[in-house]
Structures are given as C-alpha cells and as structure tokens.
Amino acid sequence: MNEHEHYMRMAIENARAMKGQTDPNPLVGSVIVNENRIVGFGAHMKAGEPHAEIHALRMAGEKAQGGTIYVTLEPCSHHGRTGPCAEAIVKAGLKKVVIATLDPNPIVSGRGVEILANAGIEVEIGICEEESRKMNEVFNKFIVTKLPFVTLKSAVTLDGKIATSTSDSKWITSEVARKEVHQLRNEHAGILVGVNTVIKDDPELTARIPNGKNPIRIVLDSSLRIPMDAKVVQDQKAPTWIFTTTNHDAAMKNKFEEAGIKVFVTSGEKHVNLRETLQILGENFVSSLLLEGGGEINAAFMEHHLIDKLVLYVAPKVIGGKMSPSFLEGTGVMKMSEAIEFEDVSFTKVGKDFKFVGYPKYDEEGGQ
C-alpha cells in the first residue's frame, strides 16, 4: 500500500462511520496531510451540514496551507450552506488534492476538479476508486436515475425456505445475524413488505439498535386489507406509506389517511405498479429501499429487474416440503439459460450463519 492509498483508506473509513446518517447525500470522508503529519480530518455527517472537506479544513486551520487533502468524492462546485468545497480548498492554500472518484452526476462531474486545476492545484484522481464507488452505490444510482437503490434481504434455510408449511419462521437465523439486519434497516431510507406479511406477522419494521433511525415503512396492498390495529398503523414509531391500486377500498383509504398514514394510488388494477412505486419513492427522496417481502413480492421485483443487490442470510438447517414458502417464488424462468446470475459475489460468516451478497446481472432492462 502506497502513501496515497494509506490516507485515502483512512478517509474512506471516516466516511463509512456515518453510514445511515447522510441520506440522501453521499458518504464522504477527508484527510489533510502536511509534512507527513495528519493535520485535519472529517466526514460528512448529515444532509444540510458541512461537507467532509470543510470539517477537515476547520480542524487543520493554517496547517492546511501547502498540504495535501484526500477526499473520497470530488469536491463540490455548487453553492450550498458552506459554499463550494473546491473554492474552500483553493482559499486554504492546499497544493494537492487526491480524489477517489468523480461526482457521478453527469451535470456536475468534473467541475470541482476544473476549479482546482484552474487555481494551479495538482489533482490526482482514482485512488481507491472502486472501494469508494461501492461505498456510495446508493447515491451513485439515486443521483443519476432518481430511483431508490433496492436491496432484497432475506433469511433462508439451506433449501431456500423462509418458513415451514405452517408459516412458522421464528427463528431461521441466529441472533447475531438478526442484529445485523437491524443495522441494515438503520442504513436504509425505506423498508418494504407486502400486505400478507403485515397480516401474518404484524411486524414493527423498525431498527432496534441504540441511537438508530427507523426507515419509512412501505406496504404494498392492492385492495387496502391492512388491519387498522396493525403495528405499522398504530404504533407511530416510524412513518408508514401504503401503495395500492385503482381498485382499492376508498373508505379504507380515508381511514388510513385520518390515522396519519400516506396512501399512494398507482395505476395498477390487480397489482401495485412496482416501477411507479419506485418513482414515487424517488420523488420523495427515498434513496434506498430494503425489501423484506415474501416470495411473491420478491419474485415480482426480481422478474421486473428492479433488484440492485441481494443480501441472503443462510442458516445451516433445512425445512423441506413443497408447501414451505421460499424467498423467491412467482413463475420463475422457463430455461436454465434464462436464470439471473449474480456478480461481485461475497460470502461471509455471521455467527453460525452465512451471508451471501451479490449483484444481479440482467440481460436487458425489465419493467412493469
């Protein structure tokens, strides 16, 4: 590992420490080095607050002059609450800027670098680029498409089951894995399930971790069958949004709205229009979505090529039985050659379970 990689990885760790706090902004970390000493560091902590570079510059003060700043994302060129970070770097008298990745937004990409270069500052781009890009996979999609990054999470047995034939599902995975799932919820802007999950399990869909934040609870309900006494309706621990169809129960819609629940009507007649749901979520700045649905909803999202990432917790046990539900049902593909493959795959051990993470590779764009 060379010097640049060493300091950039420190900046990346600073950024990662804020995961779950900056939505819909990216995770950004920064380190300032002068005469082989770290004189300032920082991370973007929350949307609307100073960027990582500003925190690092404030810490470094006059010691920033003549130094090198490492930043995981191209310094901004627009005027926000603290002004353009690129201009602040110029004003501080830094001699070099090392950047992991350019801003993914094609409208502004390269403008920060241009400000720095025009001021005579040396700029180096691409240090730990892939690591930084992966860290901001949510932001990278949302800023370009205005659609949330969708992660399908499920806990399964070795034979892919999520419950027994009697619908008993507690617990498939270990407590260690379940704690990690709550951290996942904390890191996402929204969590989505189907109405059947609400009816069967009456879940809270909250992130039960210290100082955690709860995601917006999103329920797909084609006819508005959610019981009024369901926790997601009554407990007020987090906002609940319901997406339904044109054939919904109008009286129930009024009841939900009177209870403070948002109800969105999509153009679907029998089924909630999934792509329209994602568009509405994006318009409401929900940049990341954790899908914890049953087999049918999971399959619908996958078949329409709407899943960006799969996180599968696999317990070393089997259930068996044709009537035991799987995490992915639907009609499935007709030929093995049509099976959806995953890339950039990783397997890690979580307690006594295994965690699979992969990214689906679609042959062509799907849609509803």
What percent of the residues sit in helical stretches (DSSP H or I)?
25-40%
Provide the residue-averaged pLDDT: 92
Largest sheet, described in full?
A: 9 strands, mixed
Overall 3D geometry?
Answer: elongated
Elements, N to C (H/E): HEEHEHEHEHHEHEHEHEHEHEHEEE
Strands of the biggest beta sheet: in what spatial order? 10-9-8-7-11-6-12-14-13
How many DSSP H or I helices?
12
- SS-based class: alpha/beta
Distance between the termini: 46 Å
Provide the gyration radius in Å.
23 Å
What percentage of the residues does DSSP assign to strands (E)? 15-25%
> How many E-type strands?
14
Uncertain parts: none
Please explain how this structure is put together.
- With 368 residues, the protein is of the alpha/beta class.
- Helices cover 29% and strands 24% of the residues.
- It has helices at 3-16, 52-60, 85-92, 111-118, 129-135, 137-145, 175-187, 195-201, 231-234, 250-258, 274-283, 295-303; strands spanning 29-34, 37-43, 68-73, 96-101, 122-125, 149-157, 190-194, 216-220, 240-244, 262-265, 288-291, 309-315, 341-350, 353-361.
- A 9-stranded mixed β-sheet has the order 10-9-8-7-11-6-12-14-13. A 5-stranded mixed β-sheet has the order 2-1-3-4-5, sandwiched between helices.
- α8 links the parallel β7 and β8 (216-220).
- The protein is elongated and about 70 Å long.
Please give a handful of descriptors for the protein shown:
368 residues, alpha/beta, nine-stranded mixed β-sheet, five-stranded mixed β-sheet, 14 strands
